[in-house]
Amino acid sequence: MTELRDAEARAASRRLLATSERELQRIVLDMHDGPVQDIFAALSQLQVLERALAGDPSSQQRSRQAVRLLERALNEIRNFIGAFRPPGFERRALGEIIEGLAVQHETLTEQGVELDLPDDLGDCALPTKIAIYRILQEALANGHRHSGASEQHVIVERQAGSLALTVSDRGRGFNPERVLAREEDVGVEGGHFGLRGIQDRVEMLGGTFALESAPGRGTSLTVTLPAE
After folding, report:
1. Taking residues 196-216, what's their average pLDDT?
2. 164: which strand partners?
């Protein structure tokens, strides 16, 4: 009976993750079709106004400042949309999706990613594919922000009925126990890593989570998730 309840809970968690991903993509599309278009329209109007204020240097300067602020906001939103645009989870193989994410990370951050993927990696269940992508995305982004390393190393392995993802660096490291104990620091500005969010995703799919880190010795994060 307990095993049945656990299986039902994991199935519900997989459905929840897939639903959450669809909702995220809806939000991304709404942002593109709503705020992005409005900001672009406002920029166009301000640029017209700036030219009309050529005889009023003070007003023209204020208009130019408003243009710069809107351009910065537009670029930030576009970067967010680019990061969370759906990578074609259902139609693309896992290895292809991971490679694309690594290239995207290198392009956006200029931090190298050493990728180790087996030729026979194959594919996996959709919830696991989504989870691996989002966990890797989170790990790479936070490793870039906090590790101080010039490169991160990503290994994906297929084991008996499961997939293992390891993300490591030779950066400054941290005290895992202290960070994990301080939940208020996890996944917020000024915190270290979004470890709690990664743990939650792993637990929902019935996987395992392991973290090794020490100041000055780098960090290694490994998650194992069911492939089916």
Report:
1. 88
2. 157, 224
Going by C-alpha positions, the residue among 108, 159, 156 that lies closest to residue 136 is 156
Q: Which fold has domain 94-226?
A: Heat Shock Protein 90 (3.30.565)
pLDDT tens string 150-163 = 999 999 999 888 99
Question: Side by side, which strands form the sheet with 219-226?
Answer: 112-116, 151-159, 162-169, 219-226, 208-213
Domain ranges of the chain: 2-84, 94-226
Q: Does residue 22 carry a pLDDT above 70? A: no
pTM of the model as a whole: 0.67
Q: How far apart are CA 62 and CA 87, in angstroms?
A: 40
For the record, the structure tokens of 31 come out as 């942002």
Letter string b/e over residues 59-72, b meaning 16 or more CB atoms within 10 A of that residue's CB: ebeebeeebeebee
Task: Give the model's pLDDT for residue 185.
Answer: 46
